[in-house]
Amino acid sequence: MSADWSEGDLDLAATLRDRATEGTRAYEHVSSLVTEVGPRFAGSAGDTAAVRWALNTLGTLGFSQVRTQDVLVPRWVRGTAEVSILAPFPQPLVAVALGGSVGTAEEGIEASVVRVESLDALKALSADAVKGRIVFIDQRMERTRDASGYGATVAIRSQGPSIAADLGAVALVIRSVGTSPDRIAHTGGLTYRADAPRIPAFAVSNPDADLLARQVNAGKPVRLHLHSTARELPPAWSANVIGEIPGGERADEVVLLGAHLDSWDVGPGAVDDGAGVAIVMEAARLIGRLGRKPARTIRVVLFANEEFGLSGAREYARQIGEEMNRHVVAFEADLGQGPVWRLDSRVAPEALPAISQMLKVLQPLNLESGMNTASGGADLRPLREAGVPVLDLSLDATNYFDIHHTANDTLAKIDARTLDQSVAAFAVTAWLAATKQGDFGRLQSKTE
Amino acid sequence: MSADWSEGDLDLAATLRDRATEGTRAYEHVSSLVTEVGPRFAGSAGDTAAVRWALNTLGTLGFSQVRTQDVLVPRWVRGTAEVSILAPFPQPLVAVALGGSVGTAEEGIEASVVRVESLDALKALSADAVKGRIVFIDQRMERTRDASGYGATVAIRSQGPSIAADLGAVALVIRSVGTSPDRIAHTGGLTYRADAPRIPAFAVSNPDADLLARQVNAGKPVRLHLHSTARELPPAWSANVIGEIPGGERADEVVLLGAHLDSWDVGPGAVDDGAGVAIVMEAARLIGRLGRKPARTIRVVLFANEEFGLSGAREYARQIGEEMNRHVVAFEADLGQGPVWRLDSRVAPEALPAISQMLKVLQPLNLESGMNTASGGADLRPLREAGVPVLDLSLDATNYFDIHHTANDTLAKIDARTLDQSVAAFAVTAWLAATKQGDFGRLQSKTE
């Protein structure tokens, strides 16, 4: 017996779980998105097509209150990128500009290379050793299930450019922050500090980083030529797209399921975050077809521009205003297709028994119990910081970073059965959150 | 006991096998080639660097009679290639020009698509169905250990352009003849017939072919835009590079070990055919260090321009003249890194007991026995047609066509232990061929 749910609601949670496990339409949703839209970088024509696709799809699937929230997004185009070794042994490298990088002059940049294996090693260099040179940060990302390998490495991409520029570097080349052994480079956003010169920044594929390292380690000076037509454009309009499964007795209270609609420009974003879009849409759709309304409203939010500055997340938090207080709990899918392997929460202590109960219903899906220190993910940060409890249904990230932020993020990487398991976990969790007797409390402060 | 070999020679064969299995320098040779040379397409600067590398390396490794044979090679540059879907759902595709393709006008080509699943299906279309359109041949290559999947599909690439042009097509797009599930397209040579218009021809990656097929199958007309700056240049000079392990009593007789020094332009050619170069160089080097001369001379020939017309193979056959009759047997390594899993022969019937004896010595390496219908491989065809017996030490091709003719053919795909097994098989076979009492007879005719 449970203080939080009726037997009927627990039974329906199990029904949802078992139906989803038998098969869902999630794969079909991803296929539709990558076939009819494909790359959908913030502010691009593909982004506009994605917003139209999401409106049509949510409508067709029977969602209520289907609508957009206009979001102004920064606009950047990568143009072309060329990285070549000139000496000692000339070879072209497979490279991409980092997202937000400035380009080069028409003649490009030619300079010698200084190789380091970490940001700390870079910071330890003297300006004399770096000035006028191209910094090559050769730090390899570790493969992990929980994405901790990404967290441990991503600063070379986000902070590397300004740290190298501080020391007088003319450009930065990093080993891709990603685990692909193939000749495909991983992009991703950088963050220029206001007080450092903006230098062009590139990522080379792992095999190309290996090659560059072998040439550096051969002992002769290595010279590179870099060229990029990357550039900033005026901001453009995009939109968050929202659809709901209406609640009953407490319809004014919201359980939020998020994913992001945009992708990087280099690929069709099947896994990042087409998979997440499909998981949350399908989980909510299955609840809508149960024949019984959840007490609370389940709101699917497909955020604009997660990849290039989280514009949609900020705009959502701004536009909901006082409704923030009626967001009972929020969780998102933005770490690939799954399977879901763990449930973490960040809820008030008095709600922890309910989390344990949820985990019991999820157990047949092979979930582990986690901690009460969930992050909620990037798009939910403004909500969490405003006190909204969050959950992490952790998607297995072991292979995710092989294709994350690459051209290789295609439908060929999606496994329908894996998506179904993730849909099952999200549907159960959303249903239980929307039918729970009490709420999950509020979080106390930003630092909690 | 054996009629063909002394006990001592058989013992030395086993010694060679066991030493190579314990570890060789083959990986080091591939690493050196892809680090210091990289892409080496016929007639390019990389090709010139490769010839220099091969001369230096054979010399350093202690080969005798290290020399080049000048070879005139056709010259083609791919420039840029762009293939985009314009309608119904615009998306860029990952594509490469087929080797030897003509380019497009500056404005490119825009036309609707007609999709077929085989050359036979294409031939069955009326000219009305094809005229003015872009033909898309969507035939998937099957993964096999013996490369038969490649043989069954490669004609869409080699013959497809002229067959499509016969029917009035303005261009050809094929699904890559390769098994990579990644977003990397496979190039490879086409053959224009003299009596058909030369139309531009491209290959798209497997995931991009999937996407194009999904859009076609959605039922609305599909339009593509194609652009290519591929073009022919005047012929250039390249070279076969040759080195020998000198024979003793019958030094004027030759056992030939071949591989090709050139690669496609799109990648560093670690597996195709850096692996083959390393296997034959290392196998011969190990024989040279046995402390006992083989009766016959073992000649390593690194052929120029296998990929774009077999110029080196033809030139070798022409230059050896009468020495052709003293080529006792020939075999090559040009199907990846291995392991070697089978021995086929094409020898006179009276030499078949010797082949069985060779297989016994090879048995610990897990080789199967084959047929007496070996092809000898592309570079050895002129020798075979002139009557020289050939062997096929079949390299396991299961994963080879994931990277064959792609940018992804890097050192990351090479496994040192697998190379060592292949070296062992080649060294044993070369030693036994060079010490056999009698020869392998002669082949009777081209059609045998």
- Total strands of chain A: the figure is 16
**CATH H-tier superfamily of the largest domain in chain A:** Zn peptidases
Give the CATH class of the largest domain in chain A.
Alpha Beta
Main β-sheet description of chain A: 8 strands, mixed
Per the CATH scheme, the topology name of the largest domain in chain A is Aminopeptidase
How many domains is the backbone of chain A divided into?
2
Identify the quaternary structure here: homodimer
Q: How is this structure best described in words?
A:
The structure is a homodimer of 448-residue chains. In chain A, 32% of the residues lie in helices and 24% in strands. Chain A is of the alpha/beta class. Chain A folds into two domains: 7-75 and 235-435, Aminopeptidase (3-Layer(aba) Sandwich); 79-229, Glucose Oxidase, domain 1 (3-Layer(bba) Sandwich). In chain A, the strands form three sheets. In chain A, strands 3-2-9-5-6-7-8-4 form an eight-stranded mixed β-sheet, with helices on both faces. Chain A has a five-stranded mixed β-sheet with strand order 1-10-12-11-13, with helices on both faces. Chain A has a three-stranded mixed β-sheet with strand order 15-14-16, with helices on one face. In chain A, helix 10 (270-288) crosses helix 14 (416-435). Chain A is elongated and about 75 Å long. The model of chain A has no long low-confidence stretch (mean pLDDT 97). The A-B interface holds A 31, 34-39, 45, 49, 89-92, 94, 181-184, 206-207, 210-211, 214-215, 218, 267-268, 406-408, 410-412 and B 31, 34-39, 45, 49, 89-92, 94, 181-184, 206-207, 210-211, 214-215, 218, 267-268, 406-408, 410-412.
